[in-house]
Design a protein that fits this description.
Blueprint: H1 13-20, E1 40-44, H2 50-66, E2 71-74, H3 83-94, E3 101-105, H4 111-115, H5 123-128, H6 131-134, H7 137-143, E4 144-145, E5 148-149, E6 152-153, E7 157-158, E8 161-164, H8 166-171, H9 183-194, E9 199-202, H10 206-231, H11 239-252, H12 264-272, E10 276-280, H13 286-291, E11 301-304, E12 311-315, E13 317-319, H14 328-339, H15 341-351, H16 367-378, E14 380-383, H17 393-407, H18 413-425
Parallel strand pairs: 1-2, 1-3, 9-10, 12-14
Antiparallel strand pairs: 3-13, 4-5, 6-13, 7-12, 8-10, 8-11
Helix pairs in contact: 2-14, 2-15, 10-11, 10-17, 17-18
Length: 427
């Protein structure tokens, strides 16, 4: 999973529609009660390359075994870390030409689609496929909107992870085996690393800075107050938020000056190459280390952002059932595979994430994935801000704009806190 891109406008819509075609066999309504539409399924994703495509291919193999009578149609759209796919998807939905199912980040990112009445409630499928028994209750609660569920997650990623280079830490006199107990202890280690001339904490463009922000809020506020930021029970203008933003400001002072010209792979590469000590990134970053034959525990270590060790910052890819899907039975078949133990095991072994199900066998997965599965089973699951789980797209965009202003020096901390409060209040 990569950074969230906003649901965009529909410039050049006529070209997009010409490319995807009208589809004269489309069903006219959102009836999913059966009676046809099961002979094929168009699955719309942005998984067109790398481990994401490998994961999709693995899921398709299971689907073809479980539903050999349904033809899989790959609707993957490459480009822009998902933004190109979302542009095309929005055009198709507005034109009444939906795919049978589409990928989206689970959680509040679905708000715009729900408010536009573009998604079917799939709660009944949770009962039919016995997913309420397979998924942790924390996750089901986060997926539920006014008593309804609109997607089935295929995987889980963890956002609140620090990746570190042990050699750089050793050079600074920091024990790589001693995880900092809290934010203050971590800042003390960052100061030691700064004295060596290495970058203490690598970050990249704005979305990675928002990613860092969410983890600081988790660490300093705790799960209940962090969740309260998104349900209105925690005051964005309160003293505890001010203290967390001060910690965020301090962390940003230890980052690389070229951050706004980089994206997450370059920031992670700084740690791999020994030019930086730490990077905060979701656990998809493990692939960057493994692809370069770096050994966990020797060439890199990872741990939860100090202070957030009892929390699992969750983000997930999920699949939906659009209103007016031309092949609703085919879509249901795909959703069954997405939620199945076999489908989730195959998909996540290839993609590097972990199953949303709690009954997966840890021995089927890599060493890092096993540690993530263990944490997922015991930690409090809280929603990621930067990756669509905590807020609607418009709120995330406003928070991103405010963060960019702050980290580029265009606003001070007091103005930043007010901008964040305004962003959430406007939702």
């Amino acid at each position: 999973m990569r950074r969230i891109a906003a649901v965009a406008g529909i410039a050049a819509a006529s070209l997009v529609l010409a490319a995807c075609g009208g589809g004269s066999d489309k069903a006219s309504g959102g009836d999913t009660s059966g009676g046809g539409g099961g002979n094929e399924v168009e699955v719309f994703t942005w998984w067109a390359q790398g481990s994401e495509k490998a994961g999709l291919d693995a899921m398709v193999s299971v689907f073809e075994q479980q539903h050999s009578d349904v033809k899989f149609v790959n609707g993957a759209v490459a480009g822009g870390a998902g933004s190109a796919a979302k542009d095309l998807l929005q055009s198709r939905l507005q034109a009444g030409d939906p795919p049978d199912t589409f990928q989206a980040h689970a959680g509040k990112e679905l708000t715009d689609y729900i408010n536009a009445a573009q998604l079917e409630d799939v709660s009944s499928l949770y009962d039919e496929f016995k997913l309420r028994d397979a998924f942790p209750q924390d996750l089901v609660d986060l997926l539920t909107v006014d008593g309804k569920i609109y997607s089935i997650p295929s995987n889980i990623h963890r956002s609140n992870v620090v990746w570190a280079n042990p050699a750089v830490l050793k050079e600074a006199g920091v024990d790589a085996a001693a995880v900092p107990a809290d934010m203050d202890a971590w800042i003390a280690d960052l100061e030691k690393i700064k004295a060596t001339g290495k970058t203490p904490l690598s970050v990249a463009t704005t979305w990675t800075q928002v990613h860092l922000l969410e983890t600081v809020l988790m660490a300093d506020l705790g799960a209940e107050a962090y969740n309260g930021l998104w349900d209105g029970t925690t005051d964005w203008k309160g003293a505890e938020v001010t203290a967390a933003l001060e910690d965020f400001q301090t962390l940003m002072s230890y980052t690389n000056s070229d951050r706004d010209g980089l994206d997450w792979p370059e920031a992670t590469q700084m740690v791999i190459d020994g030019n930086a000590a730490y990077n905060v990134m979701g656990d998809w970053a493990v692939a960057a280390f493994e692809e370069q034959d770096k050994a966990r525990g020797t060439d890199f270590v990872e741990f939860p952002v100090p202070g957030s060790d009892s929390m699992f910052g969750f983000l997930a890819d999920s699949f939906t059932l659009p209103v007016g899907a031309p092949h609703p039975d085919g879509a249901k078949a795909w959703l069954e595979t997405v939620g199945s133990l076999e489908g989730q095991t195959a998909f996540n072994k290839a993609k590097g994430s972990i199953p949303a199900r709690t009954d997966a066998n840890p021995s089927d997965f890599s060493e890092y994935q096993q540690s993530a599965i263990e944490a997922y089973g015991k930690d409090t699951i809280v929603p990621s801000l930067a990756h669509g789980a905590a807020t609607p797209v418009a709120v995330l965009n406003a928070i991103s704009d405010a963060t960019s202003k702050f980290t580029t020096g265009a606003s001070d901390l007091a103005a930043y806190q007010q901008d964040l409060a305004n962003a959430v209040a406007g939702s």
